[in-house]
Amino acid sequence: QVNRTSNPRPGTTTVEMAVVMPVLVLFLFGFFELGHALMIDSVAENAAYEGARRGIVPGATDETAKQASEDIAIASSLRSVGVQVARSEVVPGVQGITVTVNAPMSQNTIFAGPFLGDTTISRTVTMIRESNLRFRFPPGERTFPEPTPRPRGRGR
């Protein structure tokens, strides 16, 4: 009679688990790090956008734009974030603001900080100042077509 419940090679399952488990744990932590890196990228993009949006308002200062970006980064628990604000001409005669947010990965990751060195996620947003959004037509020239009169009645 054959006893099918006994394992002829005891310890096989333990050895297989010892070989496979580190690989599974490595993949698990890798997925956590990837998700966290994507979150850092998204926060840096949103912080740069919010800083530029606050900086394009007439009367806003560079410090207003920088503070808005830093507030977003702090609210999202990013550490050691660098924010640079620059005003420049986007095209001749049109002023713009550029906000750059730098987040060092070594200080903002969960597990992989020591392995990333000086890797930095950097996001830049440039916007045109609101005071430049007025339409300027050359003298005596109109570029919009004349409106067509609407038919009267029941729309036939």
Q: CA-to-CA gap between the ends?
A: 95 Å
Structural class: alpha+beta
How big a fraction of the residues is strand? 15-25%
What is the tally of helical segments? Answer: 3
> Helical proportion?
25-40%
- H/E element string? HHEEHE
Largest sheet: 3 strands, antiparallel
Strand order of the largest sheet: 1-2-3
Low-confidence segments, ≥5 residues, pLDDT <50?
Answer: none
Mean pLDDT: 83
General form:
elongated
Strand tally = 3
Compute the gyration radius: what is it? 29 Å
Architecture blueprint of SSEs:
Layout: H1 12-55, H2 62-75, E1 82-91, E2 94-104, H3 113-116, E3 120-128
Antiparallel strand pairs: 1-2, 2-3
Helix pairs in contact: 1-2
Give the key terms.
single chain, 156 residues, alpha+beta, 3-stranded antiparallel beta sheet, 3 helices
Summarize the model shown:
The protein is an alpha+beta fold and 156 residues long. It has three helices and three strands; from the N terminus they run ααββαβ.
Describe the structure.
The structure is a single chain. The chain is α+β, with helices and mostly antiparallel strands. It is 40% helix and 19% strand. It has 3 helices and 3 strands. The protein has a 3-stranded antiparallel beta sheet with strand order 1-2-3, with helices on one face. Strand 1 and strand 2 form a beta hairpin. The longest helix has 44 residues, at 12-55. The N and C termini lie far apart (95 Å). 19% of the residues are buried. The model has no long low-confidence stretch (mean pLDDT 83).
